[in-house]
Amino acid sequence: MNDEIIKEIKQLKEDKNAIILAHNYQPKEIQEIADFIGDSLELCLKAADVDDVDIIVFCGVNFMAETAAIICPDKKVLLPDNRANCQMADMISLEELKAAKEAHPECEVVLYVNSRAETKSEADIVCTSANAAKVVESLNSDNFIFAPDHNLGVYSAKLTGKDAIIVPEDGHCYVHTIFKPEDVQKARSEYPDAKIVVHPECPEDVKELADYVESTGGMVRLAKDPDIKQLVVGTEIDLTTRLKRENPDKEFIPLRKDAFCLTMKLVTLEKIRDSLADEKYVVEVDEEIASKARVGIERMLNLSK
């Protein structure tokens, strides 16, 4: 069944001059059909670099597809399932961000890429978990507004020695906040020879116990270290799918087997095929919002070049 659907997808890609981008948290069959797999920063960079296609099929969640649509206004961006949202992205409202700016006019606004297009339009610069500290370091002031992930904001402030005003106070990723210090301690006991890596969205007490703190793209690079044979991975469980496929001679252990993003799993092979066939669901961003949001995104991308 999958073989036939994959054949249809490949033909539709050719017919429609399309590319498939997939986030690291997509399941195995989606990773295997994708033209490119990456974290949020890598996907931003790839979207900005695709000049010779007409359609981008984005296998991820809505804010990622919106970002691609903002960066690539001349491309049609498709989200195979329009219910694929990110709870964190919806935790910061436009009104709340504007209120924080009014209360702290001396601060630049660093907005995590895990946010909606309208809030990006109020940001001075956007960041991802891979480059948050670098972005904060580039700011002109020692104080900054950070939204919406509390844990990443605190971590970025800690790494740079700057002070973060975080809005909302409880913004979080429900997948990464399930990790607890006892999970790390248990992994140390069960896998004494393993290294432990966790995501910056994890709570601070979890990050302090890990050997490494990395974005998913950083974890992919870390996994290639010849000195690491066994790695406990503290992020969404399907990153280990990619790591195992690319490093078959190594062992990758999820820090928790229930670290599972439900909306990342809404994309299926059938939905990719139907998305290409019917050119649905088109992700459109109001041009005025897109124009304003593009400023902070491009400022981030310029830092990454």
Give the biggest sheet. 4 strands, parallel
- Summed up, the helix count is 14
Structural class by sheet pairing and helices:
alpha/beta
For the CA atoms, what is the radius of gyration? 19 Å
**What share of residues is helical?**
40-55%
The total strand number stands at 12
Provide mean pLDDT, rounded: 96
Order of secondary-structure elements: HEHEHEHEHEHEHEHEHEHEHEHEHH
β-strand amount = 15-25%
Measured between the Cα atoms of the first and last residue, the distance is 42 Å
Shape: globular
Which regions contain 5 or more consecutive residues with pLDDT less than 50? none
| Spatial order of the strands forming the largest sheet | 2-1-3-4
Q: Any overview of this molecule?
A:
The protein has 305 residues and is α/β, with parallel strands linked by helices. Helix content is 43%, strand content 16%. The protein has 14 helices and twelve strands. It has helices at 2-16, 28-33, 40-49, 62-71, 94-103, 117-120, 132-137, 150-160, 181-190, 204-209, 216-223, 239-246, 269-278, 287-303; strands at residues 18-23, 36-38, 55-59, 76-78, 108-112, 125-127, 143-147, 163-166, 195-198, 212-213, 230-234, 251-254. The strands form three sheets. Strands 2-1-3-4 form a four-stranded parallel β-sheet, with helices on both faces. Strands 6-5-7-8 form a four-stranded parallel β-sheet, with helices on both faces. Strand 9 (195-198), helix 10 and strand 10 form a beta-alpha-beta unit. The longest helix has 17 residues, at 287-303. The chain is globular, with a radius of gyration of 19 Å. The protein starts with a helix and ends with a helix. The mean pLDDT is 96.
